[in-house]
Amino acid sequence: MKTLDLLHRWIGGLMGLVLAVLGFSGALLVHKDAWVFLPHGSDPVVQDSAAVARTVERIMADPDSRPEMISFASPEFGLDRLRFADGSGAYVSQAGDLVTRWNSQWERPELWLFDLHHHLFAGDAGETIIGVAALLGLFFVISGVILWTRTRKTFEFRLLPKRPSRSAIVRQHRDLGLVAAPLLLLATLTGAILVFRPVAVLILGPGAPAQIDASLKPPQAPVALLSKSLDWRAMVETAHARFPDAELRSLALPRKQSGLITLRMKKPEEWLPNGRTTLWFAADSGRLIAARDASRLPAVVQLYNMVYPLHAAKVGGLAYRLVMTFAGLALTLLGSLTLWSFWFARRRQPIRRPQRAATAQPSNEA
């Protein structure tokens, strides 16, 4: 138990800042659609295939200014988002009218906050650090519950410590951590799975990573250059005809050497915000190459597709968003106060007072 306590304190002291950043940024991102205020942001989503096709045709009309990806409006956010190859982007109305444009993510708080939470502004290296932090978060939750049992009789829930002293912070940390433990376990486990797919073995079984990779792999297709004149309307109509009950979620141009235009849709039974129902079209002709129905994926893959919605509170409505907000803020407090108590709020040494001499004073009497 002593060794476990030592590991819990030292690793927490070293990783507290990362966990606090992840917790706070995650709590803000859960409500992103509510605090991004832009014209037409609250417009009802349009899913009429003819209207969507007209918008896609308008956006893709000029080959020299095409975005590499269109993320279509959702019931929570009424604007289409465009992403360009040079890192710039734009929001447009569902009719294709420009609302705002930016040259880098630093001009949009929701974009750099997303990058902070997912990559720590450090690309793949930052994502790896986040994955390690998530795994350590699992260790903190499990070891913290074990260590709490030693002092369970003194349990008293409080959001903030009574005093900024080390002892008060440790006590608040211990009891708040116990209350938030189930949610933190969910958040750290799903986060670790999203970064390190092999971690899915813990929940989905030994063969899960290979089955997920095989099921979500795009089809094989010859490399083809993107044509300057494609029938975008036909692609949208083909998608709606193939999956009439699904919502269009994104359209992406070929990346690297794929030669495929990817159109993702979301069926009503899917939890994933962008869905996994996917169609691929040839980049040179626009003909349909393959289509994947997410509802027919293996059960293991469908369970994996629920990981991100659970992590990011994309299901369950406002109630679940508030629950995960509490988890994020709890992680923020646990991480930041751990950092403070470990490095700055040292134990005060008792003041030693000099002892009085015990020798008797001579008497003045004769």
TrEMBL record:
It holds the Pfam family PepSY_TM. Keywords: Membrane, Transmembrane, Transmembrane helix. The chain crosses the membrane at residues 12-30, 129-148, 176-196, 318-345. This is PepSY-associated TM helix domain-containing protein.
